[in-house]
Amino acid sequence: MTEINQDINNAEPHYKHTVRRLKATFKWLVLGIVVGMIVGAVGAAFFHGIKYATAFRKSNTFMIYLLPFAGLLIVFLYRLSKEYEDTGTNLVITTISAGDHLPKRKIPLIFVATILTHLCGGSAGRESAALQLGGSIGHNLGEIIKLDEDDCKIITMCGMSAAFAALFGTPMAAAFLAMEIEAIGVMYYAALIPCVLSALVASKVASYFGTVPDVFAVKIIPEFTVENAVKGAVLAVLCALISILFCVVMKKSGELYKKLFKNPYLRIFVGGCLVVILTVLVGNNNYNGAGMDIIELATKGEAPYEAFALKMLFTAVTMGAGYKGGEIIPALYIGATFGCLYSQIFGFNAALCSAIGMGALFCGITNCPISSLLLCFEMFGYDGMPYYLLAIALSYTFSGYYGVYGSQKIMYSKYHNKYINQKTR
Known about the structure:
The chain is mainly α. The chain is 71% helix and 3% strand. The protein has 16 helices and 3 strands. It has helices spanning 2-59, 67-80, 89-98, 106-119, 127-144, 149-168, 171-180, 192-208, 226-260, 264-282, 292-299, 307-321, 328-346, 350-366, 369-380, 385-398; strands at 183-184, 409-412, 419-423. Strands 1-2-3 form a 3-stranded mixed sheet, with no helix packed on it. Helix 10 runs antiparallel to helix 12 (307-321) and helix 14 packs antiparallel against helix 15 (369-380). The longest helix has 58 residues, at 2-59.
């Protein structure tokens, strides 16, 4: 009888633990869906806002001359909201790692500031802004429903996944990016169900409201021979080195602006003027805005030879001055156009080289290999899998400990089975 009672006593905690796990799972099923619906709708509005702003700028070329004044308005709005030192996506990352607070005012600020940047021709992306937007929505929803600190981190990741999926139309990559981006070498699997659900739901909601995913057809895939593998590998290593250059240029440009111009109004106004001057000197608008049309040209082998270098310059001048947007689309642009140049030099398939370049640059600046591989599958199809797999592995290794987000931590060495816990350079 005593043994039976002991067995019952031992079984009871296990039963309670099972019930708690089921409750937690159900909670995240519901919250994942809710976050996906909310952020999906906001992401769709953000997508259309940038789309219309870009279309208006292209049909009214004088808008580029208003960029310095749009910059003044951006700084005014941020300072009006008491946001004196905006760190962008880095703040969302530190929210996951350290539990920092994400104020509600971040949501309309990043929305309006990014659209203003695109409207007037600043060289910026949209996905990093989406990570901030989605993370802020998720975090503040968690505080409203009084989640504890650990759960607030998970719901912040849900928002990031949902926003990225809504704008990019790549729910697989979006689900894993949020779990992978904060601590390199460590995956937050506790957030797997909510991040997957929020990404899938947001993608569907955004699609319902008319967003169009970025898909680039790579129809002809050369046989994966030793020779072709070497060509793809060399391209991946070169892109890894370019990702290092991109990260350094982005960080140094911001530091240089702050050193030369202490006043944020003067800093962003000068930056806007520089973008205007560069645009006039170049003689076209190929390097303003996100540049998705040039990525399309790159996949056809028709992008200008110098496009990757000029896009890097335009983006550093824009983002370093304080304009809002993101680094991901510019990185894809640089990767695609460099891949196009590589294909023209070595006579390799242009679409495949552009795809390898985009995947390798994305991996190099984010240090997120799983997300990068899934992004390649969703954007370019599965047929080029051996090339993408090899490119991501090489880019992750050869990009070293550099990254475009300074708040990222490399938890485990890329070269040894060793815990290092250091921030990206």
